[in-house]
Amino acid sequence: xxxxxxxxxxxxxxxxxxxxxxxxxxxxxxxxxxxxxxxxxxxxxxxxxxxxxxxxxxxxxxxxxxxxxxxxxxxxxxxxxxxxxxxxxxxxxxxxxxxxxxxxxxxxxxxxxxxxxxxxxxxxxxxxxxxxxxxxxxxxxxxxxxxxxxxxxxxxxxxxxxxxxxxxxxxxxxxxxxxxxxxxxxxxxxxxxxxxxxxxxxxxxxxxxxxxxxxxxxxxxxxxxxxxxxxxxxxxxxxxxxxxxxxxxxxxxxxxxxxxxxxxxxxxxxxxxxxxxxxxxxxxxxxxxxxxxxxxxxxxxxxxxxxxxxxxxxxxxxxxxxxxxxxxxxxxx
Length: 333
Fold this sequence. Notes:
By secondary structure, the protein is of the alpha/beta class.
């Protein structure tokens, strides 16, 4: 019997599995969030793009579809740009409706006092080890740490997941949830070996049946053999990664699109009409690992099954290990 008993992330989230659906704006709606949570994962609903009444309606839909835990995400820069709405959202999020929230990409101290006063567990999302350490010092309960394989928001100087997790584990005591380059249980097992206790997947859940974006977007991810990183110069999106196609190559050459949004074009026509010729099909490097569009529940369960299969495979290597393995040196004091 496999169990995540003792895992600090599931202890905080109250979920069966430490598998998070990234709260990407416009996809983290009731259908997807509810499906992930009902399957035992951590569904996350974003709070930055919806009107208050729409947000309440989406929340009610999730709760009607599952009695399992799900969380709410606070995108700090988006909320902080509209102080009046920010206050209303915080009041709504912290009125007792959830016991778990994530914050992202901003000053980790901005909300921490109010969140802790409300008795809510909080994880802070960042791509910066320095910011992660500040967040831990401020009192967050966990860190979501993004490697440069991720789709948007990275810069050329950012460390990739393999190096970033190892460095972070030496400096951060709080539980770490890894994101960037992970789409399945093999990536999850690798992240755990490097010090993570959970995984956070964005591109994988874009290519899910419950994602509200057009099938052409999802199919472009499934068929992706290469991705391309494009300098955007936006405050939160220094670089954008996308499926390599003629439009993306033209944007990279400066011959098409614009840099007013991360998708460099008519994003809504891409999302809802499938016009992959008018905007970047944003994704992480992990798009090249995705072979099919699947129900969100299958993504969660397959990831967990593959994880334990890989842990078993690695554990079996102990049978062949020499008896006189060198002892691990004591940590420096």
